[in-house]
């Protein structure tokens, strides 16, 4: 067997090998999110403020697309302040509320809670009209990075 035939055989055998890059724990998590999404009022998508789009998982975005959501840009203290504001504007221009947070110091947490309350305010009023007074907000936090 000459070198070229050996190389072609190796390339063929490598090409026919199926590579499964999608581990079982990811599928299990996806199914859990799909099941739990039905009972939550809002999804809190936690992203890294330094790399917001890179830290997003498009699969999660597909699953939660019909739910109310807020983007929480964490680690905002480590990112450029001007870029942070541009990212907030970017998400909000798409109709997605966004907030800057530094979870280590707690900066932005109170504003985040207030914004979540504002987002679900109308839904809670509807629930109250049906007699479900004092119902707590049910939130799902998804962290992509």
**Which structural class matches the secondary elements?**
alpha/beta
CATH superfamily: P-loop containing nucleotide triphosphate hydrolases
Stretches with pLDDT under 50, minimum 5 residues: none
Distance between the terminal alpha carbons, to the nearest Å?
Answer: 48 Å
What's the rounded overall pLDDT mean?
A: 87
What does the model show?
With 145 residues, this protein is of the alpha/beta class. The protein has a single domain (38-143), classed as 3-Layer(aba) Sandwich (Rossmann fold). Helix content is 46%, strand content 15%. The chain is built from five helices and four strands, in the order ααβαβαβαβ. Strands 3-2-1-4 form a four-stranded parallel β-sheet, sandwiched between helices. β1, α3 (58-63) and β2 form a beta-alpha-beta unit. The longest helix has 21 residues, at 109-129. It is flat, with a radius of gyration of 22 Å. It starts with a helix and ends with a strand.
């Amino acid at each position: 067997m000459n070198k070229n035939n050996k190389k072609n055989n190796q390339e063929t055998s490598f090409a026919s090998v199926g590579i499964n890059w999608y581990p079982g724990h990811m599928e299990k998590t996806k199914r859990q999110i799909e099941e739990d999404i039905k009972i939550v009022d809002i999804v809190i998508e936690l992203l890294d403020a330094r790399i917001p789009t890179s830290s997003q998982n498009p699969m999660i975005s597909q699953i939660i697309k019909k739910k109310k959501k807020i983007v929480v840009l964490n680690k905002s203290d480590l990112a450029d302040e001007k870029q942070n504001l541009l990212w907030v504007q970017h998400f909000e221009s798409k109709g997605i509320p966004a907030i800057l947070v530094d979870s280590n110091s707690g900066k932005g947490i109170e504003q985040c809670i207030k914004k979540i309350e504002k987002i679900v305010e109308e839904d809670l009023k509807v629930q109250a009209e049906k007699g479900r007074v004092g119902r707590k907000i049910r939130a799902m936090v998804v962290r992509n990075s």
